[in-house]
From TrEMBL:
Compositional bias annotation for Polar residues: 227-239
GO cellular component terms given for this protein: cytoplasm; nucleus; vesicle membrane
PANTHER family, alphabetized: TETHER CONTAINING UBX DOMAIN FOR GLUT4 (PTHR46467)
Highest taxon in the source lineage: Eukaryota
Domain UBX: 101-184
Gene3D superfamilies: Phosphatidylinositol 3-kinase Catalytic Subunit, Chain A, domain 1
Name of the protein this chain belongs to: UBX domain-containing protein
A Pfam family that the UniProt record links to this protein: UBX
Region (Disordered): 1-29, 212-256
A Gene Ontology biological process term: intracellular protein transport
Amino acid sequence: MSHSAQFDPLSQNTTSHLDTSTQSPSESLQQVADVPVFKVYNPSNFVNAAPAPSLPDEYFTPTASDLKAAQATLSARTQALVNAPLQLRATREATEKAKRARWPQTTIRIRFTDRTQLEKVFPSTDKIRSVYAFVRSCLREDVRPIKFILYQSPPKRDLKVSDPNVRDLSLADLQLAPSSILLLRFEDETLNHTNISAPLAPSVLALATDLPMPPSLDQDIPPGGSNHPQSSANSNSMSKPGEKKIPKWLKLGLKK
């Protein structure tokens, strides 16, 4: 019997990818259970990638539309902060409900100290204990009894199951939706060294693939080397020899 369909590791619905027309119910359930619903990524080497190409002066010069958009965003955020204390409880609950409806699933990526990564999609209503259970199930048998902590950084925030302010909240309530990267540290410090391979089960490591490369900066810059063609004439007169380039987002902050 052939299985020609490909399985998406992030898909929660695995039955549609399997041909079970000639199998008994028990055989079908066993095959579904054996299909991985997560991804494993080898340690990334992005830090050793080639340096980004030098950007032209025009790239760092904000246009009138850039300034207008930044001002509109700043005004909207300021207005939201001013109106926040005036919101009724029903309004706040409606806002939270809308967020949960918008992100019914949360993608969690767990990064080990050697930069090996596990990735799985959880229902946003799940608690953090579901993430702990998933990670523990992927560890080697000899490492599973060792306690570990999942945390975010920066700023550092421990997501301990023993913390009542964490364990009783959903992934959405913990502000982890729609996607988040969590770091992991073991109580056994010997497992936390960067030169120690992630203690994952051999069956899990066998599924590892290379992490997709991030998009190149060249793809974001139009032909000619400038993302603001209309301002090239003015920028040439504003630039001075030896002048240090300042990103446009920093210029916006200096103009406040």
